[in-house]
Amino acid sequence: MYKKYTDEELVELLKQGKDRAFDELYFRYRDLLVRFVYQRMKSIPVSEEIVQEVFTNIWERRKDLTIQKFSAYVYTSVRYTTLDYIKSNTITDQYIKEVIDRNLSDSLDHNATEEAIYHDELQDALDKATSLLPKKSKEVFILSRFKQYTNKEIAEELNVSHETVKYHIAYALKFMRTYLGEFN
Predict the structure, then answer these.
(1) 144-180: b (≥16 Cβ within 10 Å) or e
(2) Cα–Cα distance between 53 and 160 in angstroms, integer?
(3) How many CB atoms lie under 10 A from the CB of residue 7?
(4) What pLDDT does residue 116 have?
(5) Which of 42, 59, 63, 133 has the greatest number of CB atoms lying within 10 Å of its CB?
(6) pTM of the prediction?
(7) Residue 139: other Cβ atoms inside 10 A
(8) d(CA 65, CA 87)
(9) Whole-angstrom Cα distance, residue 142 to residue 154?
(10) Three-class SS of residue 42?
């Protein structure tokens, strides 16, 4: 039904609360945007996460949107979200990986005391942040980041949709970036 509408007409319908207008915009642009982000990130899951975050933001702000040209707006949003991801998420993911690797190896190389204190503080902060996540986001995050499950495996394990898994991962990573900001 909404396929005949222009992007701008769909935005107006979205502002009126028509969720199918949102769905049409999402499916119209999702694959194009994922490919656009993939050119820079070289990771399908990360590209999907970034696009999901942009559309989540659009959905949350739907009543206040003032968009002249939707395609320009969404590409600009994705570009800035990608840059933010590179700036903040890469560093946080490296720290989380360090903590996980440390837990697996149980050995420190040099500067043992200083590194041990830093890693212990980070581990405590990571544990605390993980415990503060909502139950489903926490389950998905643990399976994804600690147990290295794929999104498909998580969806099967928890009996939820692939889109739900992506939402919870995006939510958990955003929460972690905010909560662990002092470690950047």
Answers:
(1) bbeeebebeebbeebebeeebbbbbbbbbbbbbbebb
(2) 19
(3) 18
(4) 65
(5) 133
(6) 0.50
(7) 17
(8) 26
(9) 10
(10) coil
